[in-house]
Amino acid sequence: MEIKQNSAEASGLTQDNEEKLDYERRVAGIEKQIRILDQEIRKLELIEKLAKEKEEKENSSAQGEKEDTDRKTKKTSRRKFIKQGTRLVVGMMLGAEIIGDNKNMRKVPAPPTEKKSPEKTLEEEIEDCRKIIKNEKFEEILKNPRLVSALYYSQQAIENMAPPHESRTQKVIWSLHSLITKEFRDNYIQYLKNLVKEQISHRYWLNLHVQSLPLDKISFGKDIEENHQDAIDLFIEEGSPIRSMSGGIVVLAENGWKKDDKLSTSSAFGGNTIIIFSPYDESFYRYAHMEEAKVGAGTVLSRGEQIGTVGHTGINASKKGHGRHLHLEINKYDRKNEKIVPCSVVDLKNKLETLLKRIKR
C-alpha cells in the first residue's frame, strides 16, 4: 500500500498544503536563527559579567582609578552596542522573512560531527563511559555515540545483543547498559530538557507537542511487519530531504559509516544515523540509513527542520536493491515502569497517517 501527500498523485501535497508546509519550515528556520542569536547574546552577557568582576578587582588596588572608570564605560558601551545590534538584526530578520514570502531563508551551517581518534580502543571507551556514568558527567555523554545508544535502546533490543555479540560495538553497548541506573537515566533526561529550555523561548516550548512528517512523500510498502516489529521503513528516492518530526535536541549524529569498518558508527546496520530527543513526551526519534547527517550532536532544532538526506548506509541497506528508504524508530521513556519502550510498527504507521490527515485538511 502506498500513501502520497499529493493531490496530483506525484508530489504528495496540494498547492495549499505545500504553501502551509513551506510557511511552517520558514517559521521553524526563523526560530532557529533567533535561538542562535540569543545564545550569542548570553555569551556577551557572560563576558560582560567576567569583565566587570575583573575591573572591580583592579579598582580595589586603588591604581589608575580614573582610567579604570573610563575603560569600564568604553567596554560597557561597546557590549551594549553589540547586544542592541544583535536584537535589531533579529527584528529585521523576522520582518524580512515574514514579509518576503518569495525569499529563501538564510541557512545556518550545522556544527561538524565530532570524530573519535582511530587509535582509541573499545576497552578504553568502555572505561571512559564507566567514569562518565559513575561521576554523572552528563555533558560528556553526547560526545560518545555508543553511550548515547546504550541509553536509547529498549530492554528487548539490549537482550538481543547478548553474547555471542555480532560486533564489538554491540559488546560495548551491552556492557554499558547494565551500568545505567534509573537515577542516572532520569538525571540524563532532565539534563537534556534543561539544554533545550536554555536555548528556546517559552512560546516555542509550548508548541513542542506539534509534529510534522519526516518526508515529503510517505510510502509504507506492501507488508510493514515483514522486516521490523519496532520500526518502519519509509520508501522514497535517495537524496530526498529528511526532516525532524519533533522539536528537541540532537543526541546522536553520525556521518562516518564505512562498509568495511563495523566500528565506523555506533550501529553497523543503522549506518549514518541521527537520534533526536523530544522533551515534550520524553521520546527519542531515530533516523537511520542516511546518506548524510546535516546537524550535529547538541543541536537544538524545531520540527520540520532538515536533518539529513535519504541514503543506503548500513550493512543491509547497502546491499543491491535494499536502499531507497528511511528507517524510522521512536522509543519512549516509561517512567512508571522505569524502562525504554519502543513504538510498534503498527503504532508508527498510525502516527504517520494521522499527521498526513492533519496536513491534508
Keyword list:
361 residues, alpha+beta, Glucose Permease (Domain IIA), 3 domains, 7-stranded antiparallel sheet, 3-stranded antiparallel sheet, 9 helices, 10 strands, M23ase_b-sheet_dom, Dup_hybrid_motif, metalloendopeptidase activity
The CATH class of the largest domain, by name, is Mainly Beta
**Could you give the order of the helices and strands?**
HHHHHHHHEEEEEEEEEEH
Q: How much is the average pLDDT? A: 80
Contiguous low-pLDDT stretches (5 residues minimum) are 1-13, 72-76, 96-108
Kindly give the count of domains: 3
Strand content: 5-15%
> What's the number of helices?
9
Percent of residues in helices: 40-55%
CATH superfamily of the largest domain: Glucose Permease (Domain IIA)
Shape: globular
What is the makeup of the main sheet?
7 strands, antiparallel
CATH architecture of the largest domain: Distorted Sandwich
Number of strands: 10
- Structural category is alpha+beta
Report the CATH topology name of the largest domain: Glucose Permease (Domain IIA)
Rg, rounded, reads 23 Å
Distance between the termini: 21 Å
What features would you describe in this structure?
This protein has 361 residues and is α+β, with helices and mostly antiparallel strands. It has three domains: 16-58 and 69-94; 122-199, no CATH class; 211-360, Glucose Permease (Domain IIA). The protein contains nine helices and ten strands. It has helices at residues 15-60, 65-99, 122-135, 145-152, 155-159, 168-177, 182-199, 202-206, 345-360; strands at residues 232-235, 241-243, 248-253, 274-278, 283-288, 290-293, 300-301, 306-310, 325-334, 339-342. Strands 1, 3, 4, 5, 7, 9 and 10 form a seven-stranded antiparallel beta sheet that branches. A three-stranded antiparallel beta sheet has the order 2-8-6, with no helix packed on it. Helix 1 (15-60) runs antiparallel to helix 2 and helix 3 (122-135) packs parallel to helix 6 (168-177). The protein is globular and about 75 Å long. The two termini are 21 Å apart. Mean pLDDT is 80; it is low at 1-13, 72-76 and 96-108.
